[in-house]
Amino acid sequence: MSVEGVIDWDEAMEQCGDDEEFLRELLADLRGEVDQQVKKIDEMLTNVPDGAFHQIMRASHVIKGAASNLMCQQLRQTAMALESQASTANDAAGDPAAVQANLPIVKARFDELRQAVANYHAFLASVGI
After folding, report:
1. In 10 A of CB 55, how many CB atoms?
2. Which residues contact 46 (CB under 8 A, 6 or more apart)?
3. Of 6, 13, 108, 112, which is most buried with the most CB atoms under 10 A?
4. Is the Cβ–Cβ distance between 22 and 16 less than 8 Å?
5. 108 and 84 in contact (C-beta within 8 Å)?
6. Are 60 and 34 within 8 A, CB to CB?
7. DSSP 3-state assignment of 59?
8. Which phi and psi angles does 50 have, rounded to 5°?
9. Can you give the pTM of this predicted structure?
């Protein structure tokens, strides 16, 4: 798998002072954090409790920030798109019709994030992390 799109390896190495072992450790930690946040989002979209869109915003914000720090652009971009759409849905949360209109769009952004996560996992496996 190509590094391109999943991570800017050179920039990530620079962020880590050119310490590849440290970068590998951080990337493994990111995998755990991302997986935890994706699970939260999935639970929110399965049950859609009150405040679900706010929780999705928070979880996607965590992914966006962590991915950004490690130059994982695909994760950052898809998390940012999900955060933005969840924010729009959250703003309309008092209107049941708006919630129903926004839900499929939020789910589509989540599907994009899940694909980015799968790509990230595949990349980590390809480099032995």
Report:
1. 18
2. none
3. 6
4. yes
5. no
6. no
7. helix
8. -55, 135
9. 0.93
The confidence score (pLDDT) of residue 5 equals 84
CB contact at 8 A, 111 and 81? no
Which amino acid is located at 74 in the chain?
A: Q
Q: Measured between alpha carbons, how far is 124 from 66 in angstroms, rounded to an integer?
A: 16
For the beta carbon of residue 2, count every other beta carbon within 10 angstroms.
8
Intra-chain end-to-end CA distance of the chain, in Å: 13
- State which amino acid sits at residue 35: D
Q: What is the pLDDT along the chain (129 residues), one digit of tens a residue?
A: 345 689 999 999 999 999 999 999 999 999 999 999 999 999 999 988 889 999 999 999 999 999 999 999 999 999 999 999 999 999 998 888 988 899 999 999 999 999 999 999 999 999 999
Residue with tokens 């190509």: 2
